[in-house]
Amino acid sequence: MATSKLKKAARVILVGAPGVGKGTQAERLMKRFPQISAVSSGDLLRTSVRNKTPLGIQAESTMRSGNLVPDDMILKLILDELKAKRWVSPKTSVSDALPAEPSDEPHASFILDGFPRTAAQASRLDALIPINLVVSFITPVDIILSRIASRWVHAPSGRVYNTDFNAPKVAGKDDVTGEPLTKRPDDDEETWRQRLKKFDETSQPLLDHYQKKGVLWTVEGNSSDEISPRLFAEFEQRFA
Fold first, then answer.
1. How much of the chain is in helix, strand and coil states, percent to nearest 5?
2. How far, in whole angstroms, is CA 44 from its chain's centroid?
3. Rounded to two decimals, what is the model's pTM?
4. Is the dihedral of CA 58, 96, 136, 23 positive or negative?
5. Helices within 51-182 (DSSP H only)
6. Which of 77, 118, 166, 186 has its CA 20 to 30 A from that of 91?
7. CA end-to-end span of the chain, whole Å?
8. Which pLDDT value is given to residue 94?
9. What is the mean pLDDT of each run of 10 residues along the chain (240 residues)?
């Protein structure tokens, strides 16, 4: 894949239903535009807990009590990561009313994954780190369900295959180990229809929030290969 250079920082969130291919698109964007990095709130949280940082110890205690990790804690994890990379001022704090004034240098580009999930969380993020593009992926439900029906996994490694577009070399066997592939227990149609319905209900206020901010861009397609060229073109136009 040919690469392109950005001329200014892209601070991006990808929004799409489960099974729509957000992970694939994020990987392709980072290959096409190598200045873009991934910032995953889930990965930051797991690393912080594993390394027993003060924030990680606090988060682990919260989760063991059966509670959700507070938004302020997630925001601090994200902010600490951006400060460590020198993409925002080291003086920035979650408790400040002032925004972080993020760097507009191309190397300060990132795709933020896992946060925000609600309009309220988006407002908190806006006050700290202004996102300048939110991509909403839309793929018909029947296409997503077809992908799930064709999906097989190698449970020990997490490798995922799809008999329609990423089939194993030997049917029903993992390419690396030769071990049998299995279906995920929740990969049935009814479970997925409920999951997709729930996503529609919870994501709309988030999309409305970014629509009002003027940073929402929507792309529709039946496959990742159909969507990627449009996504690349939009990035070229906005940031390159």
1. 45, 15, 40
2. 13
3. 0.85
4. negative
5. 54-64, 71-84, 119-128, 141-149
6. 118
7. 17
8. 78
9. 91 94 92 95 92 92 88 91 87 71 92 93 89 96 91 92 90 96 89 91 95 97 93 96
